[in-house]
């Protein structure tokens, strides 16, 4: 298997697109779900969502982070 990240395409994603991509593989947070539903967020909540978006965006284009998140559940099952 060969993994390739299209970083140029990922850099063009809007904040909502980043969250949509993230939620395809991970739960996200209550605030990120509220943001996608366009519910009202106060300034602190919006700042928290923006921090999440920044972190999620970095992780979505990081192959080593992807492999770590893929391997962790497998390792936990093997350890049981």
Any overview of this molecule?
- With 80 residues, this protein is mainly α.
- It is 72% helix and 0% strand.
- It contains five helices and no strands.
- It has helices spanning 7-11, 15-25, 30-36, 43-60, 63-79.
- The longest helix has 18 residues, at 43-60.
- The mean pLDDT is 94.
Short description:
It is built from five helices and no strands. By secondary structure, the chain is mostly helical.
Secondary structure elements and pairings:
Blueprint: H1 7-11, H2 15-25, H3 30-36, H4 43-60, H5 63-79
Helix pairs in contact: 2-4
Helix content: over 70%
Query: Which residue ranges are poorly predicted, with pLDDT under 50 across at least 5 consecutive positions?
Result: none
Give the N-terminus to C-terminus distance in angstroms: 27 Å
Q: Assign an overall shape.
A: globular
Task: Give me the Rg, rounded.
Answer: 15 Å
Strand content: under 5%
Find the count of extended strands (DSSP E, 2+ residues): 0
Q: Mind summarizing the main beta sheet? A: none
Structure characteristics:
80 residues, mainly alpha, 5 helices, 0% strand
């Amino acid at each position: 298997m060969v993994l390739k990240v299209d970083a140029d395409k990922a850099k063009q994603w809007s904040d909502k697109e980043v969250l949509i991509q993230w939620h395809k593989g991970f739960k996200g947070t209550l605030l990120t779900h509220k943001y996608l539903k366009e519910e009202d967020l106060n300034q602190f909540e919006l700042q928290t969502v923006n921090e999440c978006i920044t972190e999620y965006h970095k992780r979505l284009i990081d192959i080593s982070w992807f492999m770590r998140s893929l391997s962790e559940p497998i390792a936990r099952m093997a350890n049981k």
